[in-house]
Amino acid sequence: ANDETNRLFLHKQTASGPPIKVWDFIDDGTRLRQTEADVEGAARVGNQVLWITSHGNGRDGDAKEYRRVLFATTITGSGAQTELVFSGRYGGGAGAKNEVAARGLLVDLISWDRTDGHGLGADHLGLFAASRDGVLPNAPSGFNIEALEFSPDEVSGYLGFRAPTINVSGTQHALIVPVTNILELVDGVGVQSGRAQFGEPIFLNLAGRSIRSLCRNDSSGYLISAGPPDNATPGVNDTWALYTWDGDPEHAPVLNQELPAPDPFTTGTWESIVSVPDPMLPGAAFRLVADSGDTDFYGIGQTKDLITGLQKSYSQLFLLQ
């Protein structure tokens, strides 16, 4: 998936090239709306893949109701014979023509925070203020979900936030919110508000960075791609970085390596982890895919503005340190 269209693409992992298949779940009924939903994260358990949009405002701070949807697909087949079937959504789908109809995960998160559902104090996470019209979707004070992965027990869905980041003892920490009934939410297209249940928020010290991608292996080892905040401190958190984590909320993530600075002409920002090596040992290989929407590969304009045949993203193989 990418954050420019509402289509899903099947690619061969070992070779560069156009998609083998494309699925379009846009319709006028119960699936996805025509307007770009800003898909940012995905997570698989069994034969289901869950996809989440940013739920955040646009780059200009305007509220975007159509960016507030969690949806699911069911996988059949494998390889080039893979098929996806749309199996449910929570939040603004094709039939959500106004704010009330679009309500789902964002409204539930705000209510949980405002009513002290986490026991940390009302509005401790600042989600209501972060998501107001006019607020930019960036850390530390905006609202933007960029990652989705399952908990070690494969029951809860971990929402990884680019914004907000949360002050913990004077340091901005990255935020994860577990959705403890996430599979129930996408079982069909029923009532779209008030159903989500949340676990205790998880605060990760990424030196002021926030989560841009979160990916888990079968042994519950996680990789985190973390991006710098807008107000980064040179030499402290002004670079992208890769962290390892064991999934335990009580354990701190470990800085594995700083990532190359995104090049506006050749790469992009490190927002996708293809897979996590198992075991996660020094020298183990993993691949990152960059968000190259703003990259000018050909000197004729940003790739997101080009015709489909010229659009592409950059990927790179790395080794764990």
Description:
The structure is a single chain. With 321 residues, this protein is mainly beta. Helix content is 7%, strand content 33%. It contains 4 helices and 18 strands. The chain has helices at residues 99-102, 105-114, 127-130, 182-185; strands spanning 7-10, 21-24, 39-45, 48-53, 69-76, 83-91, 144-150, 157-163, 166-168, 171-179, 202-204, 210-216, 222-227, 241-245, 254-258, 269-273, 285-291, 315-319. The longest helix is centred in the middle third of the chain and has 10 residues, at 105-114. It is globular and about 50 Å long. The two termini are 29 Å apart.
E-strand count: 18
* Residue share in helix: under 10%
Mean pLDDT: 92
Helix segment tally: 4
Spatial gap, N to C terminus: 29 Å
**Elements, N to C (H/E):** EEEEEEHHHEEEEHEEEEEEEE
- CA radius of gyration is 19 Å
Hey, roughly how much beta strand do the residues contain? 25-35%
Overall spatial form: globular
**Structural category:** mainly beta
Poorly predicted segments:
none
Task: Characterize the quaternary organization of these chains.
Answer: single chain
Largest sheet: 5 strands, antiparallel
Key traits:
4 helices, five-stranded antiparallel sheet, mainly beta, four-stranded antiparallel sheet, 18 strands
